[in-house]
Design a protein that fits this description.
This protein is mainly α. The protein contains 5 helices and 2 strands. Strands 1-2 form a two-stranded antiparallel sheet.
């Protein structure tokens, strides 16, 4: 089992670098019915890496995106999605506050017009 698996390269400090194709093949094998532990033993890759790759692809949920974006870019894409979701929440809250303020001011103008203050 000590044969070199294609798709893995090593940095100077010894850290393993996995290609996008290898990651996609491993995730596809897991989707086909193999467990993360089985695939981990087969490819001699830590199981936590396989679980992380599966979760990253699961979060994207779009099969077209899954095939077009290399696996090493998935982390950046997920971070960007989370940032945009937080921005949407902030903007929605701001919009609801502005809507309430507008309604209050509209009622105040109507009341002032009836009392002939304006």
């Amino acid at each position: 089992m000590n044969e070199q698996i294609s798709g893995i390269s090593y940095r100077v400090d010894g850290k393993r670098i996995y290609t996008a194709e290898l990651k996609q093949n491993i995730v596809a094998e897991c989707k086909a019915g193999a467990t993360s532990a089985e695939v981990s033993r087969k490819y001699q890759i830590p199981m936590q890496n396989i679980v992380k790759w599966r979760m990253q692809i699961k979060k994207l949920k779009d099969p077209v995106v899954e095939k077009t974006i290399p696996a090493n870019i998935h982390n950046d894409a997920i971070d960007e999605i989370k940032r945009l979701q937080n921005e949407i929440k902030k903007l929605s809250k701001s919009l609801s506050n502005m809507t309430v303020d507008r309604d209050i001011l509209k009622d105040a103008v109507d009341y002032a017009s009836k009392k002939k203050w304006i």
